[in-house]
Each structure stands twice: as C-alpha cells, then as structure tokens.
Design brief:
4 copies of one chain form a homotetramer. By secondary structure, chain A is α+β, with helices and mostly antiparallel strands. Helix content of chain A is 26%, strand content 23%. The first copy, chain A, is built from 8 helices and 18 strands. In chain A, strands 1-2-3-7-4 form a 5-stranded antiparallel β-sheet, with helices on one face. A 5-stranded antiparallel β-sheet of chain A has the order 9-8-10-16-11. A two-stranded antiparallel ribbon of chain A has the order 5-6. In chain A, helix 3 crosses helix 7 and helix 5 runs antiparallel to helix 7. The longest helix of chain A has 23 residues. Chains C and D meet through strand 1, helix 2, helix 5, strand 11 and helix 6 of C and strand 1, helix 2, helix 5, strand 11 and helix 6 of D. Strand 11 of chain A pairs antiparallel with strand 11 of chain B, so a sheet runs across the interface.
Chain lengths: 370, 370, 370, 370
Amino acid sequence: MSGSTFGNLFRVHTFGESHGPGLGAVVDGCPAGLRLDKSDIQKYLDRRKPGQSEITTQRKESDEVEILSGVFEGKTTGTPIGLLIRNTAQRSGDYSEIASYYRPGHADFTFDEKYGFRDYRGGGRSSGRETAGRVAAGAIAARMLQELGISVMAYTRSIGEIEIDPKAFDRDLILQTSTAMPDARADERARAYLKECMVEKDSAGGVIECRVTGLMPGIGEPVFDKLDARLAQAVMSIGAVKAVEIGDGISVTRMRGSENNDGFESYEDEGARHIRKLTNHSGGVLGGISDGSELILRAHIKPTPSIFSPQRTVNKDGENIGIEIKGRHDPVIVPRAVVVVECMTAITLADLLLANLSSRMENLRKIYTE
Amino acid sequence: MSGSTFGNLFRVHTFGESHGPGLGAVVDGCPAGLRLDKSDIQKYLDRRKPGQSEITTQRKESDEVEILSGVFEGKTTGTPIGLLIRNTAQRSGDYSEIASYYRPGHADFTFDEKYGFRDYRGGGRSSGRETAGRVAAGAIAARMLQELGISVMAYTRSIGEIEIDPKAFDRDLILQTSTAMPDARADERARAYLKECMVEKDSAGGVIECRVTGLMPGIGEPVFDKLDARLAQAVMSIGAVKAVEIGDGISVTRMRGSENNDGFESYEDEGARHIRKLTNHSGGVLGGISDGSELILRAHIKPTPSIFSPQRTVNKDGENIGIEIKGRHDPVIVPRAVVVVECMTAITLADLLLANLSSRMENLRKIYTE
Amino acid sequence: MSGSTFGNLFRVHTFGESHGPGLGAVVDGCPAGLRLDKSDIQKYLDRRKPGQSEITTQRKESDEVEILSGVFEGKTTGTPIGLLIRNTAQRSGDYSEIASYYRPGHADFTFDEKYGFRDYRGGGRSSGRETAGRVAAGAIAARMLQELGISVMAYTRSIGEIEIDPKAFDRDLILQTSTAMPDARADERARAYLKECMVEKDSAGGVIECRVTGLMPGIGEPVFDKLDARLAQAVMSIGAVKAVEIGDGISVTRMRGSENNDGFESYEDEGARHIRKLTNHSGGVLGGISDGSELILRAHIKPTPSIFSPQRTVNKDGENIGIEIKGRHDPVIVPRAVVVVECMTAITLADLLLANLSSRMENLRKIYTE
Amino acid sequence: MSGSTFGNLFRVHTFGESHGPGLGAVVDGCPAGLRLDKSDIQKYLDRRKPGQSEITTQRKESDEVEILSGVFEGKTTGTPIGLLIRNTAQRSGDYSEIASYYRPGHADFTFDEKYGFRDYRGGGRSSGRETAGRVAAGAIAARMLQELGISVMAYTRSIGEIEIDPKAFDRDLILQTSTAMPDARADERARAYLKECMVEKDSAGGVIECRVTGLMPGIGEPVFDKLDARLAQAVMSIGAVKAVEIGDGISVTRMRGSENNDGFESYEDEGARHIRKLTNHSGGVLGGISDGSELILRAHIKPTPSIFSPQRTVNKDGENIGIEIKGRHDPVIVPRAVVVVECMTAITLADLLLANLSSRMENLRKIYTE
C-alpha cells in the first residue's frame, strides 16, 4: 500500500532514507497565490537539525532544502511543490555492524518481517531523519495558516520527571533553550538530568505539548476524519510517540461530567454577539469539530532506543547475542521532535481547512456565483 | 469533504442519524469467500444495545441489522456489503427542547458553526447511536480476523477511580458484567460508584483496554499509515475519547531507554527457529509495524456530557441561560463503548492486513504465477 | 480493493445486486443547505425504469427510493445521504439456468475468475440494475449543479446506423421518445430498426451525447484528475460503454492544428470585458480544465449482450455447449443509459467543483476571514 | 485538491514544471524485492526524448533520471521511490512573449482562470514535459509486470489519414521508425505527410494503439474502478488525448449483439482444461475485469496546438490580436506520446494487480497462514 501520503486536499507525500541520496516531500494541493520563500521552509528545518547543543548528536547535517517545483515568482502556483533535502553527512561505515542484528526498540526486526530485507544504513526509512520531509511540508502548511491568522506552537512540557511550570511560561524560550522548554529553570534541571542519563549510557523520554490559537470553529469532518482523530493519527505517526491526548486527556476519566463539561456564554464585541466556552477542558474540539477555543494536544515520547549500555538481541544467524550500540545518538528525542509535532499539526489543520470549504452550499455560491 | 469513510482496502462507509429512518454502513473491499451470517453481526450489535442493566439508559432499541447486499449463499461475494439498522425507538418529542440551546460537552454548537444548522433530534449524526454502523461493519472485520487466527478483545479497565486488578482478570466476565469489567469485585465497586453519580445527577468516565492476540509481524504501513497511527485515528474518532495509548503509553515518558527497550531472543519451536521479544513495553508495535507480540491499546473516555444537574449555556436567541437536561442518558459511556473500540480495532487491522498483501514481490508471484 | 466509490469530495458509494434485498448509494460530502426532496431523486430514477415502451423489457420495477439519512427539514445536513431502492420484481427462477454457464458478452466468467464464485441471479452486481444507485446519487449532484446555474443534458445521438439530424434537434423530445432521441424522425426510424433486431433475436448499440451548459472556467485538476480524464473514467465505468470522446473526439486525429485550434476573442458585456473561444472543437476543456464553453462528450455503447439467437459457450462442467438465452431483455441499452451518462457527468462535475474551491488562497480568505 | 496522484496501491505522484529546477515522481507502494536499476528507467525516458529525428523538435534535453530513494542493493525496498529529472535545456527567453497572450489549444487561459496566474515558461505544469515523471514511474510498473509475465506494447497506428497495415506489422520497427509505426511503408508515408504539414506551418494528429499480453483474468475492480474505466482515465489524462477506445471501440455501436459477443470455448492444455474466448471484440475486458484475452486500447491525439501559422487570440490587456507562435515544436505529438500511453497503461495494471490480491479469502490464507 501507500503509507507515505498524509491528507486528502493539502496532501503531503514524503520519500527518502537516512543514507540514500536524499529525502523530501511533495506537497500537492497547496492553494495558488501563497507567498512562499525558501527561507520560510529552511527556518523550520533548522529547528530540527542535530548538532546544535550538548544534548543532541554532534552529527552535522546541513539539511538545506531545494524547491523543485510549484513556486513561481515567489508564490505557490497551485501545482505540486517538490522539496528535496540532500543527504550529505552519511558515514555508512558507522552502520555496517547494525546490519547484522536487530536493535531493541527499533524497526529493524519489523521491516525485515514485512519486506524481507531492509536498508539498514542508519535505520533507512525508519530513521528519525524521515521527519525532515514532514517538516519541510509542514512549514508550507504553517505559512498558509499564518495567512489566515492561525498560529501553531509546540514546546517541551516535560523530560523524564521534570515538568515545566505553567506560571513560568515564556514563549521566547522555546527556540532558545536546547530542551525547547519555555521555562528556564526546568530547562536547566532537564539538561542536568540528560547529562546524568548520558553518563549512565542511558536515555530519556518526555512530553510535547502543542497549542493552536486563532482557529475558527467548524474545522474537522465527522465521523472518521474528526479534527482530534486526524491529529491523533498525525502525531502518533511520528516515530517514538506512544500516546496522544487532546485537552484534559487522560485526566477526564476520573472527572465527573459536571467538572468536565464546558458551559457556553454569549458576549458582545464590537456591536456583535458572539458565543464562547466558559472553560476549555475539551481542548478546542467538540464532536470532532473545532469549537473556537485554543486547540491543545500532547504527544508522549519514549526514550531514545539507541543506548550505549549492554542489551540482549538476536543476530542474523538467529543466535542470541549481547550488544553495545555505538555511534552518535541524542539522549532524548523530545527537543528535536517539537517542530515535527508542530508541523504535523499544521498539515492536519491545513488539510481540514480546505475540506471545510465545501461544508455549506453558501460557500459555493460565494465563490462561484458572486 | 467526506469524513464517513475509514480504511483504504477494507473500506467502511457509515451513514445515519439518531432519529432518521435508519443508520448503517457499507463495507467495500471484504474479500470474497468469507462465511458470514446475519447472526455474526447481530451478536456484536447486541453488545452495544442500551437498556440492558441498571447503569444504561432504559431506552429500548432493537437494533436489528439487515444485510442488503454482498452476501450470497452464506458467503461474502467480494462486492459491497450494505448494512441497515432501522431506527424504531425514536421519540422526537423528547428532544424538542434541545433544539433551542447548545448542550455543554456536545457537538450542537460546532455542527451549527460548521453546517449552518443541525438535525437536533437526539444529537443527529453526532449521537453515540452513530456507532451502530461501525459495530455492524466491525463485526465483519472481526469475522475475517478470526479466519486468520487473530482475536480482538476489549474490556473496561477503569471507571472513575476504580480500576480492575490484573490478577483477578477473568475474560468470561467481560460479556457478563454490566460494566464490561473482567473483574467481579471491581465491577461491583464501579456499579456502586455509578449509582452515586446518578443520585448526584452526575456522570463518570473511564478507560477501555483492547488486546489483540495472534497478529503476525509485518502489519502496518510506514510512514503515516503506521499500525499505531491508524489505530489512534480509529479510536480517537469514537465520540468521547480524549486520549489513546499504545503499550506502556504515557508511562514511557518517565522511563529510561534501558527499561523501555524490549530485547529480542530466538528460540526453537517444532524444529524451526523463531524470534520473539523478551518484554512487551512497545505494546506489539515497532516502527509502526506489528512485532508479533500482543497488541495493546487504551482509550480514555470522558464522562457522559448529558447530566441532569444545572448547567450554563446560550440559547438560539443568543441569551445566557441555565438548563437542566432531561431524558434517558447513561451515567457512563464506557461499558457500551467497549465493543466499539473492539470493532474499530478490528476494522483497522482488516484494512492493514489487506494492505500488507502487496508488500513483497514474492506475494505477487505466489498468487499470480504459482 | 474498493471499486464502488467515485469522487473525492462529493463521494458516491454504491452497493447492491440485481436480486438481493435492495441496492442504493451513500452520498458523502454533499454541502449542507441544499434543498432536496425525495421527488428530486425519484424523477431521475423514473427515467431509468424499464417497462415503459415497446423497446424496453416489460419487467416491472417500481424503483422507489427511500432517503435514509442526511436530509432534515427539506435540506441536506452535510452528513452522508443514505439512499435505498428495494428490489421487488425479482423472479429468481428465471435465472437458475444461467448459473450453469457463462453468457457471452457478460461478466459471468470474469467474476468467477476474480472472486471464485458469483451471485448469478440476474447478473448480480454486474447487472445493469447496479446503475440505479448511480442515478439516485447523480440526481443529488444535478440538484447541486442546478443551484449554481449548471445544466447537464444527455440524449441518444445514434442507434445502429441511424443518427439524429442536428438541425431537427428538439430538447423536449428527449424525455418523450422511447429512444431518448431529440429528433422525431430519427426516433421513428430507430424504433423500426430495433423491432427488426428483435424479430431477428438480435440487439443493437448506439451513441449517447452529453452537453453541459453554464459551467464556469477553471474546473478540473491537473494532472491525473483532469476534467476530461475523470469524465472518461466516470462514463467508461458504465457497463457496455466501449469508447469515450470529448469535443471533436476521434475526428481530431485527421485534422490539422490550424483547423482544430480554437482561437480566443474578447468582447464586452454589461460594461465588463470577457474572453471566449471563437469555436469549440475542444468540447469545453483545455489542459484538463473547463474553458467556459459548452462541455461535450460522447459514450459509445455496445449492443445488448443478452440475445435470443444461438451462441457458443462453456458450462460449469467445462463442456462446450450451445445456448439460447431466455427472459426479458432490452434490444438496446442506449435509451435507458442516457440518464446514467447524465448522472455520472453530474457527479464528476459536483466533485470537481468542490475540489476547485481550494485552488486559490483568495477563496480561503473569502470564506474564513471576511 | 490533489490531481497529481494516480493509483491507490501502486501510487504515482508527479511534480514539476517545464522550466523549473526539475521534475519527477514518487512511486509509493511498489512491492519490495523487485530488481530495479537506473537503466530500467532511463531506457523508457530515452524513448520520450526530443531531438531524435527530423519530425521532433531539435531541443536537446538529456532527461537523465536520478533515483533518490526506495532502492537498496539493486532491489526495491517497499518504501517510496523518489525520481528526479533535472531541467537543463530551458531557455526561458524563448517564452517571454507567450506570457502576454493565450495560445489557442493550450491551457494558458484555463490555468489563469483556475489559479489566478500561471508559470508561463514553456507551458509550466501543462507542458508535455510533465509526462517525463509519468514515464519514469511507468518504467517501474513495466518492470513489475515483466516479472509476472505481462508485456505492454504501444505504437502509432495512424498519423492524419495514414494508417498502418496490420498485415505488415513488425514489432521491431516501433523503436526504430521515427513515427513509432510498426510498418515501414506507413512510416515513410507519414513522414512525408508531416514534412508537408511543417512546410505549411501546420501540425497533425493521430492514433496510438496499446496491447497487453500475458494478463491473467480477474484484474479490475467493479464498479467505478473497472479496468477499462481506470485505463480511460489514465490515457485521457495525457494532454492532447481526445478519445479512448477499448477493443472494437466506437465500431461496436453499429454492430449487432450476435456480431459483437465473444463466445467461449474450453480446451485442453498440458492435461488441464482451460476456457478462452472464441473472438476478442471486447478487447480483453468483460464487466470491467480482464478476461484473459489480449487487452487492446486506442488513444486519439489532437494535432500539436503550437503551429507557426497566424492565429487569433487575446492578450493580457484584453485586446484581440493576431499571433504567430515561434520556437521549437514537434509537428505531431503522437510518436513521443507512444511511450507515455504504454507507461500509463502499465501503471494502471500494476495498481489493479495489487488491488486484486485482496479479492479472495483464500489469498489471505495463502499469504498469512501457509
């Protein structure tokens, strides 16, 4: 089948392995007339790049994007936007050993079972590097949302046991701290914890939170393409994510209905009456459709599976062996995955915003007969 | 757009409102030659029916399914299977009032925002009754899985604070307890808690767990149609679900890599060597592909939004009002949603099992040239 | 796979066999707020009904449609519209014989090869009766187009050698002549020819032409979902169609570029300048996108395969046998297929009209920010 | 929407404009384990290249393909295959003039109407050059078919009035004659005719025929994804195609049923009984499913719209003007489109071969439980 396509109208196809010639994406269905510059995409890719701090791998990847098509005179043309990122930093020699066994926590075993063999260099298609294509595509989605006044922001909410303090929230810190935490004190503690993990040849997990402001009500398609359902797929499809929550998430299971329901109120603004929710336990979605409140989701990410301490596994001759993984690996996936969560959220919203254009006959009349 | 289709190969389309003439599903893509009887479907629908205990609404719905097409001489023919369930118990009079305001926690407001108006009778398309179509379709998926030795089982893991004791797990109880809990003591405590909620005109949430045994490795399509990603969409698309976990789920974020990684071992069985994982923190999925272990997921469900205590909302004239909802409503959604989670899981697996047929050239050779 | 779905946004799923309980369609993605009445659909189905003249089978089928969902207070709600037509006139006894051999020109052999067995009653899913679902769905598409000032009209252009005279074209005759020819003299000659065929236990083919007026330029999606490409699929998917032409069709292959190219001119209308083509060899499509001229296509239909004269075939024991088909069969498919071509054209246009809503950023601004 | 994707399982996405950095395709869903070399693709692209004879433009395009992903150690891996062809011969200066008016017979006008503006350089996305991506992808499909013993062959059947003589058919000539005609005499006459067209600053059309041998019965999905319906879309989506025929095509409309029906016979081969058709008017398809006979289709192609004689059109200021197109243009599209028809046919078959894997439960048992 064809698992590398996401979206129905704003449609993203990705391709590429960690150590092949390159990877990228084709974005089909982006409306014509969106101002788009290479730098709009590059700045998102730069947030994903490794080698930027003591807690990410020192592997150097330039990750420079080339726009192959679909943009003319600084604007999207409505045709597919081809995006290419060349692989430059591959040192295939590093990976010759892992061809011979199944790394615990990785997809080596399942790729072999599915396809009969695998491109073992750096994890091939199952490498975290695959997300570069998503980020390039997501940057375009984010540009489109920006034009409509919608803003998507993700950040690290916790690493291991260390959680940010909502009261200390400082948006500017997201792009400044190496943990992507919007809280300087939590960042400091998390970095200390990660160094401890590294010393112990171990790794850590964490939680990414994503918030969307400016989203109009009405977005999301019942029954199966609900906003929250599509976001769940989008976010869970990121390697290492093991749980997705919307709004109050798992805590709702212990609430009473009287606590969890969000009442409504009407209010006057600039002479017109509007309706809003009194609280936002729902996280911005009711019945799978955006309700005009802030959209809130969380992705729960497992510890990096590539650890340097001894592990038990099986080699290609079927023998039980002990291994110690070598190479350059981040002790935590979370900080570099923040922009991936942001991008998958943006792609999902872009797609459902286009889908919603056909929800009412009056929209057709407005576009076609006025 | 078209949000009422799920699946690419085993494709389910649902239709129908709570109080229209009927609801149902069309299952397109079920392979020919599967033995299928009306009773195979009816027994799943019967598990979803209300009015079966003191903790579900006393509304009587017969929910009898009719197979309209696609089955001939007791076998599927490979053509679309039309499934119809007539609505018989509608008492539209009950719902005249809710046409005039937005119920907190329901989709009344968002449907109006999206479509300009709504079928307000019993929640229309956003009613929990919509899941009858999913269950009818899911029963067929489950039949198909059964033929391949795959078994899907869901149950209530917790209601409010009351959780089952894994040591007391008794599979037979799932269909016998009114909470769908596989633990008699927990069931008793949960029923007591729910009666308390009812007395207080309030409602409760809970957790459904689903386990799949017999699933071969190799199922799931990277990158976006990963097994866990598609399951996340499938399960999150069920009304009232606010979080989805795979395997160890949210708890992985506090684990170290050395704790969370599942090692591999090889062993001999009937003269052949096989590979299995030493533990199953992953919940049966690695890199989005089934790994041969038990598949485990959890759905977190919010408290029933229809509660009888006073709530604040807005009426259709834009006035802020207080309301007290009347009618027949379950104090908890969880027990009746168990079969829905099971069915959405089965549909997802059926679809990805068909998709995986084209993963290798040798499969084509086996089917077409041998 | 899933071959019973057509369209991406205005999505039609059909189901049902000739002799099962019923057949129908689910239309998912019809915008909310379209006035729709059962009679809007019934009048299209009535055009497809048999038993209405001496040149169609005398089989009586009431073909009454029931709307199961998606319409509330006389308007579409934006949710799936379930449509059911009960089979009432089945006399399965008539078909017991055909279970034992492969009818030439029918799908008996290929269904057996594909699925391993078949519902042989009346051709099962491959019966012309399958088109009832398409017509019910197409009637809704036509209603939507009508609201936007777009009109779709199909008619019989020829039967055997007898062709209509364009100068004698009388639109009103399409619904009055039993051949669906818009030319009384051609109709008379065609009926005489068909009677001759019937006497000779033989059958005839013919050509259906379809014209669309009021279609705005810009509809159709390059590269694979071009307007003409999607129409070709839509029309070729009707059983018995063996060729599809757009505009001047096959005759362009003998033209020179200077003859076939349509020049452009600008003109003034109500104070504004507009552009139009000087001729319409293209049939209303340039580069797969509507060009504002009349859209013109033709479907070429083979003679009814069920003929009463002797034929050679193979029975289920693999023996070569001679057969003489019995039963009630139209001597020509063309007249009853006219409304099917019209409906498939309408569905294709409805789908691509919705798709085109997302072609420009300015449309998003108009819907979301004004 | 998203018109640059074709296929559901063997899924081809194309991108790229005539004068941007490059164009290409992503093939998602090709089964793992197919031997594939760059030269397998290059040899198809070389057949499409211009500048190879006196009857094609002397423009030089190297059209060298790069495989970006999805192939490892000479075999497909099951992951998306990225294919890139750099544009090298662009001389944008040639096209500055056409930015200012609408060329008759081209998509300039309709792209402007759809998207608000267009990449006018060399026709942008609507250039015939777009087909390079299809050919690169189609070469992979053809490799897959070859492994299963299926062979696809297209050739020029006629140019203007000059038609090949079936008795003179010589398959080897297809790749040798500059017209791609499998008949030396017809080739000679056609070249003379084309020179005449060139002298008269005019252009010609023609017919491409495509034949598939070795195709097993059972391929094609009723109702809308019939083999012939999908082929019709595939072929009509090629720019300049105005009609598609299957088997006897338009001539069936004048046949009687007794002439057009193909009888069946059984015969013995290597001790087993088989069934075949006595004739092949159907062109290898019955009820939208392959019937085991040779598959035959024809594409009817209009004369090249870029002609050097004077034409009437409108400029961007809305003025009526006369133009004379300059530049390098083939006097006929047909010979270079032969490989495109072949490739679109191969892609369609590859996709439906994968789809058919899930037609029977016994296939699932064979793959999963044996």
